Amino acid sequence: MTNLENETLVEMRHICKEFGRGRQTTVAVADVSFAVRSGETAVLIGPSGSGKTTLLTLAAGLTSPSAGELYLFAKPFDAYQPRELQKLRSRNIGFIFQTFRLLDPLTVLENLILTGKFAGVSRVEASADAARLLSKLRIENLADAYPFQLSQGEKQRVAAARAMINGPRLIIADEPTANLESKQALSLFELLREYVKQSRCGLLVATHDQRILSFADRILRIEDGLLAPRVSLEYYNQAWNLYY
Ligand SMILES: Nc1ncnc2c1ncn2[C@@H]1O[C@H](COP(=O)(O)OP(=O)(O)O)[C@@H](O)[C@H]1O
Ligand SMILES: [Mg+2]
Q1: Distance (Å, rounded) from C-alpha 151 to C-alpha 168?
Q2: Three-point CA angle 164, 169, 172, nearest 5°
Q3: What dihedral do alpha carbons 196, 201, 207, 213 form, nearest 10°?
Q4: Does residue 3 carry a pLDDT above 80?
Q5: How far does the chain reach from its first CA to its final CA, in angstroms?
Q6: Tens digit of each residue's pLDDT (9 = 90 or more) over 93-147
Q7: Sign of the dihedral defined by the CA atoms of residues 103, 78, 72, 224, in that order
Q8: How many angstroms does the Cα of residue 74 sit away from the middle of ligand 1?
Q9: Residue 48 CA, closest ligand 1 atom number
Q10: Nearest 5°: CA angle at 15, between 53 and 73?
Q11: Is the pLDDT of residue 241 over 90?
């Protein structure tokens, strides 16, 4: 991690991920190689069931590959001790889950503060960071609300705030704009991009949202667990309707 300007945050070499055993085996990711570097926005597209979520959970160190080499922050996945991996995830990786995974018994503010505390930030500091982020996302009025009181779009923005609160080096987002109307989707994505530019972190996003393609430095298309060869943005714009 010496060269922060062009750090390789995640690298996959011939990664395969299978679920189940024997005749029940599902190959979610067949043979995937790619890297995400600091300052880069990589967008992963592909039909439902093509392996996008599985690939993101591998990139976040939430699951282990069945085969291939996975490097997180230049270190082999297998070389991490469980506690070290937990620390890496809480401090350096922000994950926006498709299903949000907000903690229902806690208010929005408490959800964010708890994430800060997991990363070793004091309550006072985490509270200030949370307030700043909520205001930036224009949801400061929701600080004392509980998840069940929020709309899908509001939950998504809270999930984004939670992913950013610890100043991660890598943000991974699974369909982050799926529940947002156009204006909200763009403003959420602009905020994520602004964070990427300011902090030179990496952003890996899986999406069905064509509006997001214009923000991508790199587009990765996955189908049946395999990445398609690299083609131009124009191609994707033209081909989009064939896939969705
Ligand atoms: N935990 C799991 N157990 C069994 N099969 C799974 C599991 N997670 C994903 N799969 C299967 O792996 C394939 C890829 O799923 P997923 O990564 O969720 O795709 P996507 O996010 O592109 O829709 C699908 O066939 C899915 O049913
Ligand atoms: Mg998915």
Answers
A1: 26
A2: 65
A3: 50
A4: no
A5: 39
A6: 999 998 889 999 999 999 999 999 988 899 999 999 999 999 988 899 999 999 9
A7: negative
A8: 27
A9: 23
A10: 80
A11: no
Q: Is the pLDDT of residue 198 over 50?
A: yes
Is pLDDT at 2 greater than 70 in this prediction?
no
Residue 208 has pLDDT above 90, yes or no: no
Report the pLDDT averaged over residues 181-193. 84
Instruction: Using the structure block, give the residue that is written with the tokens 């083609």.
Output: 231
In sequence order, what are the beta bridge partners of 173? 96, 205
Output the CATH code of domain 4-101+169-243: 3.40.50.300
Q: How far is the CA of 206 from the centre of ligand 1 (A)?
A: 14
User: Would you say the C-alpha torsion 101, 175, 204, 65 has a positive or negative sign?
Assistant: positive
CA-nearest residue, atom 16 of ligand 1: 51
CA 170/CA 185 separation, integer angstroms: 20
